[in-house]
Amino acid sequence: xxxxxxxxxxxxxxxxxxxxxxxxxxxxxxxxxxxxxxxxxxxxxxxxxxxxxxxxxxxxxxxxxxxxxxxxxxxxxxxxxxxxxxxxxxxxxxxxxxxxxxxxxxxxxxxxxxxxxxxxxxxxxxxxxxxxxxxxxxxxxxxxxxxxxxxxxxxxxxxxxxxxxxxxxxxxxxxxxxxxxxxxxxxxxxxxxxxxxxxxxxxxxxxxxxxxxxxxxxxxxxxxxxxxxxxxxxxxxxxxxxxxxxxxxxxxxxxxxxxxxxxxxxxxxxxxxxxxxxxxxxxxxxxxxxxxxxxxxxxxxxxxxxxxxxxxxxxxxxxxxxxxxxxxxxxxxxxxxxxxxxxxxxxxxxxxxxxxxxxxxxxxxxxxxxxxxxxxxxxxxxxxxxxxxxxxxxxxxxxxxxxxxxxxxx
Length: 410
Ligand SMILES: *Cc1c(COP(=O)(O)O)cnc(C)c1O
What we know:
Elements: H1 3-7, E1 32-37, H2 38-50, E2 57-61, H3 63-68, H4 71-79, E3 85-88, H5 91-99, E4 106-108, E5 125-129, H6 132-145, E6 149-156, E7 164-165, H7 169-177, E8 182-188, H8 200-218, E9 225-229, H9 231-236, E10 244-247, E11 270-275, E12 278-282, E13 287-288, E14 294-295, E15 300-305, E16 321-324, E17 327-332, E18 340-343, E19 355-362, E20 365-367, H10 369-376, H11 380-385, E21 393-396, H12 398-403
Parallel strand pairs: 1-21, 2-3, 2-10, 3-4, 4-5, 5-6, 6-7, 6-8, 8-9, 9-10
Antiparallel strand pairs: 1-11, 11-19, 12-15, 13-14, 15-18, 16-17, 16-19, 17-18, 19-20
Helix pairs in contact: 2-4
Bound molecules: pyridoxal-5'-phosphate.
Residues 61, 109, 190, 230-232, 246-250, 256 line the site of pyridoxal-5'-phosphate.
């Protein structure tokens, strides 16, 4: 019996993280999958919650399927383990959470289109708004409905992406102060650089944010929840926690950088695994894969792993490794859309059916998100969300994680 079968009590684990058509759910599990450890997620939230005073609320940013894990499962675990607010970017993401029965406050990050606004009230979704025109349209929606609608004012303090600019605050604050039908639920900004050692620009953003908040208050706009920190700010800028922090990456057991403060006990949530599908024996001079990018200089034993760049693995050649039988097996040749090949010559116990770890731990060895990010010439965030939906998500520890600490942070 495989480890997976044991963990899930004999049946194949659930793979319903993404929108799997129901008729495919009974199929045998594809021998390549993303493993999501919900116990690790639960424990990470508890560790993060313990770092915060009770007066500071914890918002979980679970955009893009909770950074690749599956948003619904992640939201349920989060809400049972100290999280009180959720945030996503797209309307579809928010509606999917609501349709799964999640009742917690959901904040829509980014900027809405005017066409999206009428969809929000019935689903109890709160937009971030960063322009006077959109604020006026939201105010008009509230007037038509005959009840105040909540808004979080997004302030641009130097990221220069979304939001009202700190520069001309006096002008737009005057315009906002005329709106009569909105509930000033929150005000937020976002750091351009919070996880580097040099916090000069982050501190400038904090000052600008405080300046804008004072300006709002002076004009009778008193947002209930002020929030600025992402994972990096939460770790390194405790003076900027205000009323709430917005955590994404860190909840998944991954640090935004190597230099930020570390918390004891955080564990990576996501692993990527596959079973070796075939073994090939090469003679001297034989090549491997497209473009013949690897040529054997002696007899070699090659394992084929049924996962490729079509699943989100970086399209590298002769670079990187996977963990098999407790050893590192180097990649040989180029990564294909559906497969990659590794050198098993020194690992005689590895064979068809052996479990290979492409991200995560096996025995004493680990391939971490930052290792894969280097291969991909990208960042940890991109590695997490980059695993495509055709890789099934296998959830470990669901029941325990949902039950853990329920009632603990009421
Ligand atoms: C993604 C995002 C966050 C979370 O950032 P992490 O670094 O993943 O913690 C917070 N706020 C906003 C506006 C975001 O877009």
